[in-house]
Design a protein that fits this description.
Blueprint (H helix, E strand, L loop, with lengths): L1 E6 L5 H13 L3 E6 L5 E3 L5 E3 L2 E2 L10 E4 L10 H16 L3 E5 L16 E2 L13 E2 L5 E4 L2 E4 L5 H13 L1 H11 L2
Parallel strand pairs: 1-2, 1-6, 2-5, 6-7, 7-11, 8-9
Antiparallel strand pairs: 3-4, 10-11
Length: 182
Amino acid sequence: MKGLMFFAEGMEDSETLVTLSLLRKLNKEITTASIEDTLWIRTLDGLKVEADCFFKDVNVDDYDYLIIPGGKFCKPRIPLLNDVVKDTAKYFNDKGKLVAAICHAPTLLNDNGVLVGKEFVCHPSVKDLITVGTYVGPKKAHTYQNVITAEAAGSPVEFTYEIVKYLDGKEVADALITRIRY
C-alpha cells in the first residue's frame, strides 16, 4: 500500500517527521509531496527538508491513503493551498480510502464532508472551528471508519500506531511499539 503525505511551509516537525520515520521503519512506501512552489520546505521549527516531489505531479489514484500533518500551513495562509489539501482529502474519503490528519489538520476536513457524521480529535485550541462530526477528545489519537485524527505534536507515535493498525492490523502496530520501545 502506498501513502501520500503533504509537505508545506510551517508543517509541524514532530507530526510530520516522526510519523514519516516510523512508517518508513516498517518499509511503508510514503511519498512526500510539496504543495508549495519548492521541494525544500521549512518546518515550523526551522528545519529545511526536501519533499520527494511536487503535488502537482502526483496521480492521487496511485495512493491508498493520505496523511496531513498539522502546523501553521493549516490556517488560511494561502487559500489555494488549503483547497488542494481539502479537495484531495475529500477525494480520498469519497473513494473510501484512509485519511489521517493530526493537530490543526482536522480543521481542513470540516467543510469538505470528510468529518460529517464521524468522531474526531484535534488540538483543543481548534476543536470549536470544526462544526461537523463529534469531538471525542482529549485523546492522543482516534480512528473512526476511514478517518484517523490525532491531537497534537505530542501524538505522532499514537497517530502512527493507529495508521499502522488500520493498514496492517493490531499485531503489526504492536510490533512497531515494541520495536521503538515506547
